[in-house]
Amino acid sequence: MNTFQVKLSRYADLILQVGLNLQKGQRLIIHAPISASSFVRDITSKAYDLGAKNVIVDYDDEQLRKIKIEKATDEGLKDFPQWKAKGYLEMAKENMALLNLSAPNPEIFQDSDPSRVALVNKTAGEAMKDFRQYISGGRINWLIAAIPTKEWAKTIFPELSTDDAVSKLWEQIFYTTRVDQEDPVPLWKEHISAMNTRADYLNRRKYKTLHYKGPGTDLTIDLHTQTKWLCAEFINDQEVHFVPNLPTEEVFTIPIKTGVNGTVSSTKPLNYGGNLIQNFSLTFKDGKVVDFQAEQGYEVLKNLLSADEGAPYLGEVALVPHDSPISNTGIVFNNTLFDENASCHIALGNALNICVEKGKNMTKEELDNIGFNDSIIHVDFMIGSGELDIEGERTDGTKEPIFRNGNWAF
């Protein structure tokens, strides 16, 4: 095999063996764009070699969604196939593994009516909400990984030819997932161990409030005593360890729903459902967004914040050092999977109950009592830079540096 094929094979192995940690006898569902069919076949073959019971591929076509958004009636936009929602939920209950190959066109819906795009997203979010609880709760092993498309590559490298842009993007994916190294598996184990060490330190300090200061950002976020910091290594209901994002650089927790106050400014574009939202800021009072601005994508952001009652509240707080492999590429990927792992970020919408002690077994009322946010959306956006400082306030009122100039202070 040539060098590219060797790296591509390593990438597939990393996805199945480290990311998903696919188990023998497990059913695998692959959600992917139709342009990724060649790589999907490679993944499928390797999955069966690992003992997969069955591999089911659910192809997606953004162009078909755009046609629907432009031509369907309002009633058609509200129509989601219930058989699909029930099927995914049924397979989740039977311990499926889910691979989501992310290959978006960041600008495909840029000229579409934002309210119609929002209606389609809301309809799908409501229909798939029960299944999404298996994802946000880490109850099944799942993974988001990326594969280039021509459209995505050209938004990042517009000066290159299409073929060169795709090749360049493959290089970056291989680099940021450590697949360009001879044996990436032990490198990933070492990386995960280092992130767990950071999370353990934060848990020992038991911070009650985080204070963010940076250009356009002056924000406080309150944390509950029952929440905990994690890195992106999860354990599902069958005690299987998996890494749900490739690449990943974050250590994260959840805030108290009503405990966010101040203003925060984005530092990278947000690709939300085929639309770019750029140079935006949010102002919070008692947890809720009460004001917002955006140089591009204002209507998209407005619709996002009104998706449901929980949409204008936060559901995640994540720390990512500015000095990290993805950030050091100097590339804005226009893809949250990469950009959120190059920058500290926070997420609007649904909180992750894995960040709560015994959260998987708590009732909705018990989660509500500790300030847990519930929503059909979970949208990360980037707020980190080399100028961001974060302090942690402990229960006795003392403050300690967590980040200085965008990097860990301990």
TrEMBL record:
Name this polypeptide is given: Aminopeptidase
InterPro entries: M29_Exopeptidase, M29_N-terminal, Peptidase_M29
Gene3D superfamilies documented for this protein: Thermophilic metalloprotease (M29)
Family statement drawn from the similarity comment of this UniProt entry: Belongs to the peptidase M29 family.
Molecular function terms from GO: aminopeptidase activity
Biological source species: Rossellomorea pakistanensis
Cofactor(s) the record lists: Co(2+); Zn(2+); Mg(2+)
Top enzyme category: hydrolase
EC number: 3.4.11.-
PANTHER family per record: AMINOPEPTIDASE, AMINOPEPTIDASE AMPS
Origin organism lineage: Bacteria, Bacillati, Bacillota, Bacilli, Bacillales
Keyword Acyltransferase (UniProt): no
Keyword list, A-Z: Aminopeptidase, Hydrolase, Metal-binding, Metalloprotease, Protease
Domain of life according to the entry: Bacteria
